């Protein structure tokens, strides 16, 4: 395990370098540069959880009875959590590929908003690690015609960001209500928020807000995918400040009728 912790540290350093590469290739905005940046970033995002899974699996496999039950369970839980992260990441890549080829065609079905939110919640449950997730659903919300798999993916991405970019002891909220023929689902956190100047750009592919402390690595794909999926449903996604002007509110608006525009 110590070995894998060391690996992780050096990967963290490598990530800082990759972020710089990504930044410069974005500036040149040449397709080749983007492709190379995407490849290195993707490989990196696959490798980090993989190294971590390997470390934990190796410790479990080579255990000669020294680990107690608690330690074994912890390692197994770690393997699960990282494998889930990998799974989400690969799903995002698949969605992105489909989006970029215009091949993402939602399969619309009448869906219960509460069930969609509950489904997304289940998929981030382990990552919550005891953090409060408040879910408020207005009574008598209409069913919405959406692709449940894709909309859950959007909600998982938003929850993932809300957790990634806010203190681990701060609550995350989900609010769902109906207004003007739309169902509006908001994910609200109490993190540092997104500066006004970046609010439109965060939905662009590879765009990441500059952060002094180099915190929370990512590829800058999640929100681009969210926007693509929501648009494919004839909806919109927007960002504003969270509660009391603090933190971030991501609001997804989906037409109840589900007719893509
Ligand atoms: P990633 O998280 O992989 O970098 P995203 O497309 O999901 O990519 O997000 C793009 C950028 O928007 C992030 O890098 C981050 O700077 C910013 N961001 C997204 N969600 C939040 C949030 N809830 N709070 C603060 N910043 C956020």
UniProtKB/TrEMBL annotation:
<feature type="domain" description="Histidine kinase">
    <location>
        <begin position="41"/>
        <end position="258"/>
    </location>
</feature>
<protein>
    <recommendedName>
        <fullName>histidine kinase</fullName>
    </recommendedName>
</protein>
<comment type="function">
    <text>Member of the two-component regulatory system KdpD/KdpE involved in the regulation of the kdp operon. KdpD may function as a membrane-associated protein kinase that phosphorylates KdpE in response to environmental signals.</text>
</comment>
């Amino acid at each position: 395990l110590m070995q894998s912790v060391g690996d992780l540290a050096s990967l963290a350093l490598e990530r800082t370098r990759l972020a710089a590469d990504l930044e410069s290739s974005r500036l040149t905005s040449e397709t080749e540069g983007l492709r190379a940046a995407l490849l290195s970033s993707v490989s990196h995002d696959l490798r980090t959880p993989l190294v971590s899974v390997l470390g934990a699996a190796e410790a479990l496999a080579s255990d000669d009875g020294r680990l107690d039950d608690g330690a074994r369970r912890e390692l197994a839980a770690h393997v699960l959590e990282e494998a889930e992260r990998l799974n989400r990441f690969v799903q995002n890549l698949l969605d992105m590929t489909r989006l970029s080829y215009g091949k993402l065609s939602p399969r619309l079905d009448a869906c219960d908003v509460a069930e969609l939110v509950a489904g997304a919640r289940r998929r981030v449950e382990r990552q919550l690690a005891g953090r409060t997730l408040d879910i408020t659903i207005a009574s008598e919300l209409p069913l919405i015609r959406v692709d449940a798999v894709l909309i859950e993916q959007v909600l998982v991405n938003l929850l993932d960001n809300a957790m990634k970019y806010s203190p681990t002891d701060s609550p995350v909220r989900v609010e769902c209500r109906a207004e003007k023929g739309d169902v509006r689902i908001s994910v609200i956190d109490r993190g540092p928020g997104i500066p006004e100047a970046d609010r439109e750009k965060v939905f662009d592919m590879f765009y990441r807000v500059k952060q002094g402390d180099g915190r929370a690595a990512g590829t800058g794909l999640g929100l681009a995918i969210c926007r693509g999926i929501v648009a494919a449903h004839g909806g919109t996604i927007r960002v504003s400040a969270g509660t009391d002007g603090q933190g971030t509110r991501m609001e997804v608006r989906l037409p109840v009728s589900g007719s893509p525009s």
